[in-house]
Amino acid sequence: MTFLFPVLALGGTGLVCGVVLAIAARKFAVTEDPRVQEILEALPGANCGACGVPGCAEYAKAVAQQKLPIDLCKRGGAATLARLSALMGVKAEARERQVAIVLCQGDDSRAVRRGLYNGLADCVAANAMGGDKGCRYGCLGLGSCARVCPAGAIEIKPGRLAEVHPDLCIGCGLCVQACPRGLIRLVPESRRIHVLCRSRDRGPVVKKLCSVGCIGCGLCAKIVGNQGIRMEGPLAVVDYGVQLENDEVTARCPQHSIASRPGRRQA
Questions:
Q1: What is the C-alpha separation between 266 and 186, in angstroms, rounded?
Q2: How does residue 25 score in pLDDT terms, banded at 50, 70 and 90?
Q3: Residues 106 and 228 in one domain
């Protein structure tokens, strides 16, 4: 009998606590939108973060709660967009796919290097020190862009120049954010004519530093009547809002700074 009372007291306390917890669990239960799992299954599962949130699960929740639009998954493409549109009952027009391009041709055979960089193999770190390239606008070629690419679409060529393979590019834009010199841009995949230079130096300086750098002669802009290419100070810049098909600008560029690069091949 001595032990009976403590046992009953302890058992009663446990029973009361269990009842309280059961009531609390029912009252404060959070019901998850069943669409979250359906949305998650529609996503590619790459967890690349290109949509702006840490992973596909978080993006699925944000879409279900209508906190983010349904067209942010670049890797999924048109097929994923169509499934999310059906699940959410939202119409979304498929936009032209974007591909990244590196606006520089200055590899070691074309561009001057002013020294030997032996620091951390990271473009941001090298850029903070000025880099070892003579052109302060050129590609550092240390692969920061390639390391963040979830599709393996960027190759660092032997001459220390980054190059995007358009057939592999998913247009996520992570490489654009990774480049400390702003050399990578997302462009519509149908655009094939590009000024592959970002130097703002004057012509004589550019010629000393890079054999394929834009010298700001303005010939290309004159050929197209400033429709598709315009001059921004000493640099020719392509207006990707215009479908530029004039191959004369490529052929007549004295520095060969303008190149014709195909976008993603059609399947």
A1: 18
A2: low
A3: yes
**Domain span including residue 50:** 35-88
Instruction: Give the three-state DSSP class for 100.
Output: strand
Cα–Cα nearest to 97, from 73, 130, 113: 73
Q: In this predicted model, what pLDDT tens digit does every residue of 37-72 receive, in sequence order?
A: 988 899 988 888 888 888 899 999 999 998 999 998
Residue 129: how many CB atoms within 10 A of its CB?
10
Is the CB of residue 197 less than 8 Å from the CB of residue 217? no
Classify 187 as helix, strand or coil: strand
Say which CATH number the domain at 115 has. Answer: 3.30.70.20
**Pair of tokens at residue 107:** 């590899």
Q: Which helix (H) or strand (E) holds 23?
A: helix 4-27
Q: Are residues 104 and 73 in the same domain?
A: no
Contact between residue 64 and residue 154 where contact means Cβ atoms under 8 Å apart: no
